[in-house]
Amino acid sequence: MPGAYIKQVSGLDRGAFNPLVAAAGLWMESDGQDIRSRSLEGFLVKVFPDRIVPGYLRRFERFEPGPKVDHSVRVAESTLLAEDAMLGAGAALRKILISVRRAEVFNEDEDFETDPAYARSAEHLEQLRADVDGLATSALCECPKCSMVGGLQSWFGMRTIGHKRLRQSWCRVCRTFHGSSAGKPTPTR
Ligand SMILES: [Zn+2]
């Protein structure tokens, strides 16, 4: 079973799931590395430099979504987002393997699965599926910056432009790095 730390650090105990953080944590755990916030973040920044900025993990880990209620609507869309997040975590695991084992070539599924650390991580990821699916009981959004999927109200929030109420595009954690003007709002579908 994946350690409790993976659930906590990937956001699952707070109504969110960051597939990149989960994949990197599962990889380090399966590879026998000691996971600490700092080593995990260093690894994330190296493999996913365009997604995870230095300092992200510490803020994400400490972010408490607060009492805002996420409406139990649009569950079909949320289910798709939760499924996408699981696919994203699987893709992130493959990217990690390719970047760690630079000398080797991975083309077929079997090439990946013969790597013991990859096989263990993929199996542990599967054990998170029920928790990730469980997020879909409320309205979810995905952050285009850090790939995190989380509750619309609690992790994203709304903004008013003119007479329109739009959801924030970037999650609350990513917005703390770029000021309140960053992250273009996208219309609520
Ligand atoms: Zn984000």
Keywords:
mainly alpha, three-stranded antiparallel β-sheet, globular, binds zinc ion
Characterise this structure.
The strands form 2 sheets. The chain has a 3-stranded antiparallel sheet with strand order 1-3-2. It has a two-stranded antiparallel sheet with strand order 4-5. The longest helix is centred in the middle third of the chain and has 26 residues, at 75-100. The N and C termini lie far apart (37 Å). The protein is globular. It has 189 residues and is mainly alpha-helical. Helices cover 51% and strands 8% of the residues. Helix 2 (19-30) packs across helix 3 (37-47) and helix 2 crosses helix 7. Bound molecules: zinc ion. Zinc ion binds next to helix 10.
Could you give the topology of this structure?
Elements: H1 4-9, E1 16-17, H2 19-30, H3 37-47, H4 56-62, H5 75-100, H6 109-113, H7 116-126, H8 129-134, E2 140-142, E3 149-151, H9 152-156, E4 158-161, E5 164-167, H10 172-178
Antiparallel strand pairs: 1-3, 2-3, 4-5
Bound molecules: zinc ion.
Zinc ion binds next to helix 10.
Tell me the fraction of residues in β-strands, as a range. 5-15%
pLDDT < 50 stretches: none
Distance between the termini: 37 Å
Query: How would you name the oligomeric state of the polypeptide chains in this document?
Result: single chain
Task: Report the structural category.
Answer: mainly alpha
Q: Kindly state the percentage of residues in helix.
A: 40-55%
**Chain-averaged pLDDT:** 89
